[in-house]
Amino acid sequence: MSTLLLLAALSTTPLPLAHPPAATPDYTECRAAVQISSAKDAGPGQFKQALDAATACVDAGGGADALILRADIQQRLGQPDAAIADLSRALEEQPFSVLARFDRGLIYMGQQKYDLALNDFTAAIEINPNDADSRFERGWLYELTGKFDLAIADLSTVAVRYPEYAPAYRLRGLSYASLKRFDEAIADYGQALSLDPDDDDTYFNRGLAREAKGLHAEAIGDFSVVVSRNARDNDALFNRGLAFMHSGRREEAIADFTAALAVQPDAAVYNDRGVANEQGGHLDAALADYTQAQGLEPNDETSLQNRVRVLDRQRKYAEAVASLDAFVLRNPKNALFIAYRGYNYSLLHDCEKAIADFDAAIALDPSNPSSYFNRGYCHLLRDRYDAAVADFTRAVTLKPDNAVALEARAETYATMGEYDLALHDYDQAIALPSGERFLDRRGALKENLGDVEGARADFDAALAYYDKAIATSPQDDQLYDKRGLVQAHRHQWDRTIADAGEAIAINPQNSAAYYARAIARRHMKDYAASLSDLAAAQRLRPDNDDYFVSSAITRTYAGDYDGAVADYERALAIDPNNPATLVDRCWTRASLNRDLALASDDCTRSLSLRPKSFYAMSNLALVLLREGKLEDALDSVNKVLERHPKIASSLFLRGVLKNHLGKDGTADIAAAAAVDPDVVSDFAAFGVTP
């Protein structure tokens, strides 16, 4: 269903003072015969009688007048071509007949032969500039052909001459609305309704104009008039539903969309009801609506994009790919949706298929920065750093204010050990209007490099920004989240807990705040409170595997191995190929010295997905340490430190391994503690000591 302006059959509404020329006395019988054809109870025999009488007049030499009369009957009998032939003969006899021009123009307009109709109406106006009938119809013709300024000019002339003629205002209002001159359209609709308050189309069109102006309450009022007169008017129900939705009255919107669908199933209505359901957090209902919309219009891009977005939110990536497969098969040149499928492949950790899709999308549309960014991210996940940098650079070149691409390139440079380049990219991102959220990342990078003063300066700047933002918007729960994250980087766990508590008080549905508070409480060794917060986060977002992974990590610190493994299983049920989950489970098993063969498998599988992951290599070193394979463990940790010489956990492990092998690991352990003062106690909690 589309929200198109509705045109009434205005040409059948006579102007108040417009009359055809008086009949010649000789042809009174012909005119009487014509009157029979317009009678309400006229039957086929009477129509035939009228046509025979008019033909007799033509044959008796009735000339142009008789031909015009017979054309009128033929038009009523559904014989437009015969009518045009008679009117054309009439114009050969009387070239200046306004009536013949007008009648033929109407027939041409009904046949959508707009150029021929325009010629006739214009000729009639040139013969008689005061011919308001032809000027009105020409105005309508201009409206139909998108020449709205010309339509307004003709209709204004009619309105001046006949100020009580409602159709002129109705039609001129449509032209104003088409030009987005909504104030003038609303005024014309109001004038038309003052003259003819029973015209539902005018209420409907005024509702559309008011809605376009953002006057939602007034638009609802207009659509409600139409619905009150016809409860099954699905156009009015649909558009009132849109106005309700734009007013934030979501349940009333859904009720109207549902009523419209009961009248007639329609893809647009299903799609918009899906949007309302999605905004209300009813994802299953939204998905059902988008699926219905797709079934009715399989090539509709909006409902497909909406459906895939919900599937992504529900982590049903394979189902999203299947939907996109069907669409791409029908539309093999649609770069946007090929790239969208690639994105979903990346969410399935199938980066090779993802990259193939991004390659195809870029070949079709090399100007879309998102395709380069997403392909670069896949290269990053596969540790193809040079390719990732090239793609992120292209994304930034195409969109210089692309803060996300700058951040991703900075992350890649940091992973490559190119810390100066990473800091430069973070600086560029921070300089952008939306870049303040990257301040804490820059500070964390400097902290890893052992640049304590630089990290402190960046964290201080981040805190100052969020302090100022919170003073301006004290009810924005996300600002407290962000400030809490900065304080977590500084190990100010009590402040993180306080900020998360503020966020939860403002918005009890903020699952991220429960998550942040849980991590802070874990660091304060309050494991029961941490697990309670994570349970709350999981109830709010049962599809978020990060919450189950964090719960597993907390249980690891609490010594609950079975509970931790069960949480990892829940996380992997949501995202089976997540390399981070696998490596965390490897860490749990190695830290608690349980199922070391399985731990090794987890780290190895994670490395197959991210071959250069320093976290996976470091955890594998811990597994090897537990297994007593000290030389192999030292080799693994050295590979990490060759590329990332300041990683605290790897430095500490190397120091421990050196000590076990009879070498002096003191310097490495001291360097680790300088980067992260908690590293010694974190390992000691699991029995790994110098």
What's the quick description here?
It is built from 39 helices and no strands. The protein has helices spanning about 30-40, 45-60, 65-75, 80-95, 100-110, 115-125, 130-145, 150-160, 165-180, 180-195, 200-210, 215-230, 235-245, 250-265, 265-280, 285-295, 300-315, 315-330, 335-345, 350-365, 370-380, 385-400, 405-415, 420-430, 440-450, 450-470, 475-490, 495-505, 510-525, 525-540, 545-555, 560-575, 580-590, 595-610, 615-625, 630-645, 650-660, 665-675, 680-685. Helix 30 packs antiparallel against helix 31 and helix 33 (about 580-590) packs antiparallel against helix 34.
Please characterize this protein's 3D structure.
The protein has helices at residues 28-38, 44-59, 63-76, 80-93, 98-110, 114-127, 132-144, 148-161, 166-178, 182-195, 200-212, 216-229, 234-246, 250-263, 267-279, 283-296, 301-313, 317-330, 335-347, 351-364, 369-381, 385-398, 403-416, 419-431, 439-448, 452-472, 477-489, 493-506, 511-523, 527-540, 545-557, 561-574, 579-591, 596-609, 614-626, 630-643, 648-660, 666-675, 679-684. It has 39 helices and no strands. α1 runs parallel beside α3 (63-76) and α30 (527-540) packs antiparallel against α31 (545-557). The protein is elongated and about 130 Å long. Helices cover 75% and strands 0% of the residues.
